[in-house]
Structure formats: structure tokens, C-alpha cells
Design a protein that fits this description.
The chain has 96 residues and is of the alpha+beta class. It has one domain: 3-Layer(aba) Sandwich (Glutaredoxin), CATH 3.40.30. The protein is 41% helix and 23% strand. The chain has 3 helices and 4 strands, in the order E-H-E-H-E-E-H. It has a 4-stranded mixed sheet. Helix 1 packs parallel to helix 3. The longest helix has 23 residues.
């Protein structure tokens, strides 16, 4: 089964105290889907972060849904569930 891709953007090189609560919030959701999610931690100072209009912290689900630093955990969980359902639909369609 395809996994949901989550890119986590943080200010790499900054003191962890600047993003630890953000990471705790992100992982409180991701841990529920640990076998169904692949994640990468990336610099919020990168071109990719600018492309998504990420400030100092944020995350992107499957390259399409962007969540800012102060995201709603239930909305992130809903986005992951939608992505999982969509990937399951694609797998089922390929079987027929």
C-alpha cells in the first residue's frame, strides 16, 4: 500500500527550543499512522519551503495540503485519512 508523504519544515540550525512544541504536536498525530506515513524533516529556509509559502515552521501532506505552524491537529489527521483513502482507491482501481 502506498504511504502518505509528510514533509516537515523547521528552522534547521536553530535552537530546538524554537520548534520542539511544534514537533511534539506533529508527532502526536503522525504516531497514530506510523506504518502508513513517510516523513522528512526539511529546512524552512529552503526553496521548497518558499514554494509552499512556509514561514519558520509548517508541514505539507502529499505535496498538496499545507499546514502552517499553528495548525489544527484534527485537520492534519483528516488530511492523512483522506490521502490514505485516495491511495486505497487507486490500488483498488488498478486491481480491476
Amino acid at each position: 500500500m502506498p504511504k502518505v508523504k509528510v514533509d516537515i519544515f523547521i528552522p534547521i540550525g536553530a535552537c530546538a527550543c524554537q520548534f520542539s512544541s511544534f514537533m511534539d504536536k506533529v508527532f502526536s498525530v503522525l504516531v497514530k499512522y506510523r506504518k502508513q506515513v513517510d516523513f522528512d524533516v526539511k529546512s524552512s529556509f529552503s526553496e521548497e519551503a518558499r514554494k509552499y509559502k512556509i514561514g519558520s515552521k509548517g508541514l505539507v501532506v502529499n505535496g498538496t495540503e499545507i499546514f502552517p505552524e499553528h495548525f489544527n491537529s484534527s485537520k492534519l489527521e483528516a488530511a492523512i485519512k483522506r490521502a490514505l483513502e485516495a491511495s486505497e482507491s487507486v490500488v483498488e482501481a488498478q486491481k480491476t
